[in-house]
Amino acid sequence: MHERSLPASPNWYCSRCSDVNSDGLLGVGAKNIIYLINVSASSCRVVGELVGHKDLVSGFSFCQHAGQSHVCVSSHSDGSICFWDSHSKTLLSEHAAHQNPVSAVHWSPVDKNLVVSGDEKGIVVCHWYHTGDTASFFPEPRTIFCLTCSPHTWNVVAVGYKDGMIVLIDVSKKGEVMQRLRGHDDEIHSLVWSPVTGEDTLYNRPEDSEAANGESAGEERGCYLASGSKDQTVRIWSTSKGKAVMTLKLPYLKKRGSAVDPGVKERLWLNVHWPKGRRTQLVSSCFSGELVLWDLTRSGKQRWTLLGTSSDSQNHSRIVFNMSSVHLQDDRELLLSTSMDREIKCWDLASLDCCWTLPTLGGFVYSLTFSPVGAGCLALGVGDNMIRVWNTLTTQNQYDTRSFWQGIKSKVTALAWHPKKEGSLSFGTDDGKVGIYDVFSNKPPQISSSYHRKTVYTLAWGPPVPPMSFGAGGKSSYSLYSCAGEGVILQHDPSKLSGEASDIDKLIRDTNNIKHKLSPHTDLSWKPDGKVVAIGNEDGCIDVYQAPSLKLLCSIQQHHKIINTLRWHHDHSSPPELHCLLASGSSNAIVYVHDLLLHYRWEETTHCTPPESPVVLTEPYRRLCGHTAKITSMAWSPHHEARLVTVSYDGTAQVWDVLQEEAVSNYRGHVGYLLCVDWSPVDPDVIWTGGKDFTVQEWRVSKQEFTKPPKGKKMAELREKKRTNPKQKKKNNKASGAGGAAASEMNGGPVTGGEKIVTGQELSAEDEEDEVSSTSSPVPPPATFEIQRKSTTAAKSKDKPDTNLLKKKKPRSMLPISTSMDHRPKEELLQDCITLASVKHTSVPPAGCVPGQGEHIHLGLFSDRQALQRMFESEEEGHVEAGHYDSVVYLRLWSGDVEGALQLATEKGELNDHLLSIAPMAGFKVWSQTVEAYVKQLCLQEQYLKAASHLLSINKLYEAIDLLHSHKLYREAIALAKARLPADEPILKELYSSWAAVLEKDGHFSAAAKCYLASGASFDAAKVIARKNDVSSLRAAASLARISGEVTLAQSLALRCAKDLAAAQNWVEAQEVLSSQESLLVHRLHLCVTELLSAILADSVVVSQSSVSSHPWASPGDGHISIQDRVRVVWEEQFGVSQTSAGHHSARALLQELKSVDSPAPSASIPFRQVLLYSSLHLTHSVLSWLLDDDEQLIKELWQAVAWLRDSGHFCASAEFCRLLFPDGDVTVCSGKHPKTLHLTGEEAKAAANSLQAFVHYHRLYECWWSISARNQKIHNGLSVSAAGDEVNDRVMNGGISESGESVCPPTRRLEKLDLDASLLLSESHAACQAAQRSIREIQERLAAMVLQHSRAPGGQLGSGEKQADTPTQIYSTRESPDRQGSADAGKRPDDQESFLSLSSKMSEHQKQLADLPETIKMYPHPDVVECCLILLHFTKSSTSVSESLQQEAKDLLRKYGSSPSVLKSSRPFLT
């Protein structure tokens, strides 16, 4: 087993991918492997892996029960759930219960056999470990992000979803949803239960004291649940209440200096953990990797404490994904966290300090090398775009590593330390970049300006060669050499990397006089003394050159596949005869060692004397056999003589005794193939290896169980597979070098080997793994290290099958019959030659031989034209039979029969552009006919545009336009017509009209309007735009109509638009719309009055309406000025309308225009805003009449304005309006600013004035009553007060003004006594009229009830018919007057039950009485006389302002007309 190891990075964006058991064993899911790490307060150690599943680990959890804590469970992206034994490191069982990737898994802390998992589609599955049973639930159709089992109740599971929902389910009741916790608005990343039961822990907070006092002991048996979400909050939920009781917002912490690439953007991941036994302390992650400890009993900044504040390097530098805690035997509680920064950290929860950090790797380990100067300094080149430098000799921190990422945007595939300069590390990357880092400084690396086109395989420091070795002596003694996938070796000047690097191939060709192209280079190795360099090539050849001229000394042609690695034996503390040993590994599995000293008798102390001519070596010094796949790297032991370690694609590292050709030790601790190896510079027994499994492992040679590489158990299977699939074998052989290597067991599981599998499945797997582990990397994963070592030749050969597949099918022969005749037996073909010679050279052809016909059809090609024509005729017949009419057409074309060819193509529908292009050869008539035929063919193929274009070619313009029109291509038809025809062409208008109709039908009104405008139909254009009926459309339509001269339509549309704007209280825009039309002045005046009235009523709190926009002149102003005066002032200042204005602004002209505006009858169903419009319309009439000195019309219009508010049920608004019209209470005084007293002569005008004055007194009467009631602060019993109060209240509340918010109208001023002529309210004629109207209404209701009872009685549909039949007369709305209610009560008495005829006769009498009354009484009514009598008599109790004569008159009217029971009851105190 290995000593120390850097494991693969834990998987990102998983809610629970790591867990620790009670023994301190931490399990971490990385790729498809689970790494097991023993943790303590001082150190950690990777003790093993759980290997055996091929898909990504998405969740991991230990069983936390005694005796079973070694059992754990993992979930995977393929939907499977695996149970493992961490002691034996074996897979116990695997279940495929999910059909989708599993996103969360948890082992129940209560039930040792229950495991719950959830997948991305929302399926929750319960697994019973001891029986293997499963149960599936589907609580919510959402994506599950996390779940956690309750630590107190076995059947309760909390599930967090992607959309922020948290659901508590009961797994014992088929996943029944117990609660839905709503509050988060983004992904739920983590859920954790409080470790203790009860919900009294947080009630110590002052804000929750009320809740605490209200809780009973039975209700505190719930449990808190904490959740972390992407919305940057942690919420604490009460399960007994089903709601959040606390929200913790993440603090914004100033990010300390850390090694994080600023170009990488990461999203927030909020993980929460509730340590066991800590009732009020919760740990959560923060924005940039910080960990925060929350004290739930505190508030403000005292609530949270930052972990790791003792030094800057303690915290994670990027977001944290998982946390778990464990209590050790020494009573220390440790917290373990995994992060995007690829580090696992251990924290002491007592001191909040970081105990240790374990670095992890996020990609293949491509290169590892020890510094030759700094002892124990190990550099790692990793596929996660970072370099790690590990001080392996530090005793205090066993994993003392630093990461370098600046300037690196790709996988680090090659490393080389400077031989002399400490801390100078060169690196090469997958994207061809070469650079040098100073690892002891924080400076960014130096980057060479010369880039390779492909992956850098090898870096080596060596002596400079020309041209770099020329020049001043101050030059560096070392150059940096890089070899990359394109087969080029570049020499870089380390002191001037910005300069151009030189290609050593030029020097090699010049020195050795080589004219041919050199084989692409794949590796190089300088002899330690710097005098000889070995270069490996793609063709398997190894060339050894002498420095500095690079003269070729020898060529080793032992390998036949690409050279992957070369290593010279070291020259320190070893015999001189070993100094010239060169080990080489290629894509075949054999390692060769060559001793160059034996061949060239090189001096032991000086450089080797070169031979006169290069020698080719074909036999090795030693052959090391045992690996079963290609060799990727090797290293000589610095402590031994001729001891070599090699690593291979077979997944093992092998130590060899080279001189004895013996295998010493074989290491099998990795999962997958190995890529790099180095021997420890301080410990002869220790070797370090890295590979595909994202790990670096330290292991001892002496402790290995095996001595030889595993035997190829799968060789037979591989060969059989290749034999049955030769195409795949050929393809993969070209893609890689070695064939047929195999693998054997490694840690109980098979390791895949062989080139075929490695270059296909395993390499693509790396790309996938790198993508999973580094989802934030902006650089797409390029081809991997191994696949890039393929030769360019191999790449080209690989492409050949693809190009063959792309070859088109051989075209059909035009002369198939004659061609087939040339494929007869040899004897017949020879006879054809003799026959043809006879035809050509004799006057009489052989008997029966007619060239171009029959058996000699093929000879028509070699004879005269007549024979060729006969051959064409025979070929045409064959093509017709086969249905190849296009071939017949071409044959006719070739023979010159163009018209026949076109006719045949027309008949068969085979015309095309080519045939059409040659049609003019047959004449204009044929060409024209062909075009017309082709147009028909194109129309059948629905190519109308092309067909129209061809019609244009024969000057059939109208036909082309009609074709486009008939197929609804209006836009194209119009474009063609406008381009070719005059502007006044009737067809244009027809096209526009047709298109407009279609557009209007489809709802495209703007486009239709443009068509109407283009056709000159401006009226239709405005109408179609107005169909949308919104403000913007109406406004545009009005403007369009005005510009087009459609004055009447423009006015109509502008009015509609202004009314909509006025309804929305947008007064300014409404006036703007009307101002564009000079003839709409009177409507502007009307809107002006409406705006003034709305503003004043809103100011008096009668109505509550918010105005969108209003004019400055619409402010409420002084309440002592009548609204008529306000209107006149505004009209004169803003609109220029006064008594002296003339022309269109004259009052007479404006009044005439205003008469055209209709005003319907008032109704309670009309909205208040409309009521204001109609009321202000009459007010506008009255002001215009005032300007004309028409007093009678003035008073009538004022009465109508007040009547609109009164009759529509707006009592308070009506009262306020009367006060605004007549501030002094006298209707004959129309204005205070402009002295005006009304002079009325007509009966109707006088009646209107009396009615208006009566209602003014009526409202003042109520003001007096409210004033006295407020002063006395009590309300008397009886109808005299309550009934009237209820009546007023009902009028206000049911009249549609409830939006104002008041229940009754408040008194506008304080009145101590009646200062009005109350006699006007006690009109006997109006009392008689009102009594007759009440009687008629009562009789009508009783008749309706009798009709209803009669219609239901025969059918037997009523159980208690009488009661239900009486309901119309017994039940009234609260708006009915008291006497009506009394009448209803009277209807219940038996003595009032009358017949239908008697009721009809009574109604006729009342109607006759009503008809005898003057029309002015019915046209201009007064307030309810009986009601006014009751209020006046009530005044006698608290005021002496009512005269005796007035009281007597009121009593007389009550006796005469107050016949209803309720009125009689209320008037009894005054009449007795």
> What global shape is seen?
extended
> What does the largest sheet look like?
5 strands, mixed
- Class per helix and strand makeup: alpha+beta
Q: Catalogue the unreliable spans.
A: 203-220, 256-264, 602-606, 726-806, 1273-1304, 1306-1311, 1356-1392
GO cellular component, one term: SMN complex
Protein name: LOW QUALITY PROTEIN: gem-associated protein 5
Domain Gem-associated protein 5 TPR: 859-1067
Biased composition (Basic residues): 721-733
Describe the fold and architecture.
This protein has 1472 residues and is of the alpha+beta class. It has a five-stranded mixed beta sheet with strand order 42-43-44-45-49, with helices on one face. Strands 1-57-56-55 form a four-stranded antiparallel beta sheet, with no helix packed on it. A four-stranded antiparallel beta sheet has the order 2-3-4-5, with no helix packed on it. The model is unreliable at 203-220, 256-264, 602-606, 726-806, 1273-1304, 1306-1311 and 1356-1392 (pLDDT under 50). It comes from Lates calcarifer (Barramundi). Residues 24-202 form the Gem-associated protein 5 first beta-propeller domain.
